[in-house]
Amino acid sequence: QVETLKAKLLEQAQEISRLRSEQGGTDAEKHRDLLAAENERLRQEMKACEGELRELRRQQQAPCRDCPRLQENAGLQEQLSQLQREAEETRAKLVELDLEVQQKTNRLAEVELRLKDSVAERAEEEERLSRRLRDSQETIASLKSQPQQIKYIIKTVEVESAKAKQALCETQSRNQYLQEQVGMQKQVLKEMEQQLQSSQKTEAQLRAQIMMYEAELERAHGQMLEEMEVMEEEKNRAIEEAFSRAQVEMKAVHENLAGVRTNLLTLQPALRTLTHDYNSLKRQVRDFPLLLQETLRSARAEISQAIEEVHSTNRELLRKYRRELQLRKKCHNELVRLKGNIRVFGRVRPITKEDGEGPEAANAVTFDADDDAVLHLLHKGKQVSFELDKVFPPQASQEEVGAAIHTAGVRAGGSHLLLTLPCLPQVFQEVQALVTSCIDGYNVCIFAYGQTGAGKTYTMEGTAANPGINQRALQLLFSEVRGKAADWDYAITVSAAEIYNEALRDLLGKEPQEKLEIKLCPDGSGQLYVPGLTEFRVQSVEDINKVFEFGHVKRVTECTNLNEHSSRSHALLIVTVRGLDRSTGLRTTGKLNLVDLAGSERVGRSGAEGSRLREAQHINKSLSALGDVIYALRSRQGHVPFRNSKLTYLLQDSLSGDSKTLMMVQVSPAEKNTSETLCSLKFAERVRSVELGPVSRKAELGSWPSQEHLEVPKRLLGDSPGSAAPPGRGHASPSPGQLSSRSASIRRKLQTSG
Ligand code: ADP
Ligand code: MG
C-alpha cells in the first residue's frame, strides 16, 4: 500500500509541475512581451516628443533673439535640458527596471521550477522576491518623488514664461504619460504579485495535497500498524497457546520428573551398590592384568616345569618302555616256551549237498553253549565229548576263525596288537602275531587236518570271495612289512611243494615230477634245506595269488569214492621272510608254513586198492608221524621223531624251538562220517591233552631222536589238563612200566586216526 501511495504521490507531483509550467510560463512570457511592446511604444513616443521639442526650440530661438525674455527662455531651456537629462536618466532607470523585471520573471520561473523540489527553498525564494519587491517599491517611490519636483519646477517656469508654460505643459503631459507608464508598471507588478499569490495558492494547494498524501500515508501507516497489531496479537495468542501447551507439557514432564525422582530415590541405593560393585570391579580389572600376568608367568613357569617334567618322565618312560618291551619279548618267548606253543582247534563244517539226504546226512555234532572249547559227537547212539583249545561251529566265518586264532595267540602270550587289515579288525591278530614272529625270525606252522571233505582246503585257502588263512596271513605279512619298511629291508619268498607218497615235489618248479631231497645245511647250523626248491620273490598279495594258482594246477589230486576233490597229498606253502635291520645290520629269517594235509580217512573205508592203498598207507604214516611229533613237542619230550616222515622232517625247524604251531582239525558233522569224525577228534584231543611242562629244550639238542622216544613220554597222558607239572622233575625219565603202557595207548590212538 505504501508503495502504491508513493507512486500516486509522484504522479500527482508531476501533474502539478506540468500544470504549473503551462500556466506560469505562458503568463510570465505574455507579461514580458507586453512590457517590451510598451517600452517600445514609449520609446517612439519619446522620440516624437523630442522632435516636437526641437521644433519648439527653433521657433523659440527666432522670436526670442530680440525677446526680452530671451534670457529667461534660455534659462528655461537650460532647465528643460536639465529636465530632459533627468528624463533620460529616468528612462535609463526604466530600462534598468525593465531588465530587472525580466530578470525577476526569469528568476520567478526558476523559483517556480524549484518550488516542486522543496517548499523550504520556495519560501526562501519568496522571501528574496519579496525583498526585491520592496526594493523595487522603494525605487518606485523615489521615482515618484522626482516627478513632483519636476512639476514644481515646471509651475515656476509657467509663471515666468507662457511658452515655457506650454512647454512645461507638454512636459507635464509627458510626465503624466510617464506616470501612467509607471502606474502600468505598478499594475504589472501587481499582476506579478497576484501571480505570485496564485502560485503561493497553488503551493498551498500542493501543500494541502501533500498533507492529504501524508495523511493517507499516515492512514496507511496506521493500517499497517493495525495489521501489525493484529499480527502481534495473533503472535501473542499463538505464543500464549504455545505457552499454555508448554505449561501442560511441562506439568506432565514435572509429573514424570516426580515419578522419575521417586524411581531415582529407590534406584539410588541400588546405584550405590552398583557403584560400589563397579568400583570394586574396576579395582579388580585394574589389578587383573597384573594378576593375570603374574598368574600367566607362574602358570607358564609351572607349565614349562610340568612340560619339562613330562618330558623327562616321557624320556624315562620311553627308556623303561624299551626295556620292558625287550623284557616282554623275552618273557613272551619264555611263556610260549613254558606253556608250549602248539594249539589245537577244531572246526566243524556245515552240512553240504554232498552229504546227501536222509539219516546219513543228519547232524551228529553238537556244541556246548557255555564252553567254546567243548564238542559233543553222537556216535552209534553214544555221546562222546571232546575238549580242544577252541571249537568252531559250522556258522563260524573265516574271520571268526582268524579271531579265535588271535585269542589263542593271546592266551599263548602273543600281544602284537597292531591292526593292519582295516576292514577286518581283530580278526587276524593271532595270525598277525604269527606273522610278526615270522618277521622277527621265528618259524610258524599252520596245519589243516581231517578227513577228505571236512573243509581243510576251505579253511586254508578258502574261496575267492572268502579267502582262508593263507591269504589273510599273507596280507597281514605284507602290511606288517610295509609298516616296518622305515628301518627294515624285507625279502619275502614263497615256495609251494607237495608231499605225495613220501616224495617231496616242487609245485612251482619246471620239473614237477622231480623228487627233492631234504638236506642239512653244510654250514653246520643244523638248518635243513631243500636243494632245487623254487622260491618266488613276492611283493604283493596279487603275486601270492598268482603263485597259488600256478601251484594249484600242478597239484596232484585224485578222486576217491569219498570225495571227488579229495587230495591225497600234503600241500605246503612255505613263506620265508628275510629281514635286514639297516641300522644294526641284524639279519633275521622266519618261515611261515601253511599246510593243507592229505585226507586222514582210513584206508579200509575208502576202499582203496593197489596204488591207492599205498597212498593211503603213506598218508597214514606221515599223519601219524606228525601226530607223534606234535605230541612229543607239546609234551616237551627230549626226542621228537621228526625223521619218521618227509613232512615232519621238512618242517623240523618250523616245529621245534620257539616255533609256533597251529593244528586245525576239520570234521564233518554228517551222521555217515561220525566214525572218521571220531578218529579226527580223538587225534586232536590226544595231541592237545598232553600236559605242558617246563622241560628244558637243551635236552632236545643233546638227544638224538630214536624210535624209543616216541614211546617214552606217555606218563603224561594220565595227567589232567591244567594241572601243574611236578616240580624238580628235571629231565628225569619216568619209570619204564609207565612208559610202556602210555606208549601203547598213544600208539593205539594214533592208529585210529591214521
Ligand atoms: P578237504 O579239503 O578237507 O577235502 P574241502 O575244503 O574241499 O575239504 O571241503 C569240502 C566241501 O565242503 C567244499 O565244497 C567246501 O566248500 C565245503 N566246506 C568245507 N568247510 C566249510 C565251511 N566251514 N563252510 C562252508 N563250506 C565248507
Ligand atoms: Mg582238500
Explain this structure.
The chain contains 17 helices and 15 strands. The longest helix is centred in the N-terminal third of the chain and has 178 residues, at 162-339. 63% of the residues lie in helices and 12% in strands. The protein has helices spanning 2-64, 70-117, 119-160, 162-339, 398-411, 429-440, 456-460, 469-483, 541-554, 603-606, 611-634, 646-650, 652-655, 674-689, 698-702, 707-711, 736-753, and strands spanning 342-348, 365-367, 374-379, 382-387, 390-392, 443-450, 488-500, 503-506, 515-516, 519-520, 528-529, 536-537, 570-581, 587-596, 660-667. Among the domains are: 222-339; 342-403 and 427-603 and 613-689, Kinesin. It has 754 residues and is α/β, with parallel strands linked by helices. Bound molecules: adenosine-5'-diphosphate (ADP) and magnesium ion. Adenosine-5'-diphosphate binds next to helix 7.
Give me the CATH architecture of one domain, please. 3-Layer(aba) Sandwich
Total strand segments: 15
User: Averaged pLDDT, please?
Assistant: 77
Q: Give the % helix.
A: 55-70%
Number of helices: 17
Return the structural class: alpha/beta
- Class of one domain, according to the CATH hierarchy? Alpha Beta
**What is the makeup of the main sheet?**
10 strands, mixed
Query: Which regions have little confidence, pLDDT < 50, spanning 5+ residues?
Result: 406-428, 556-566, 691-754
Give the CATH H-level superfamily of one domain.
Kinesin motor domain
- The CA-CA distance between the termini, in Å, is 150 Å
Assembly type of the shown chains?
A: single chain
Cofactors and ligands present? adenosine-5'-diphosphate, magnesium ion
Report the sheet-strand fraction: 5-15%
CATH topology of one domain: Kinesin
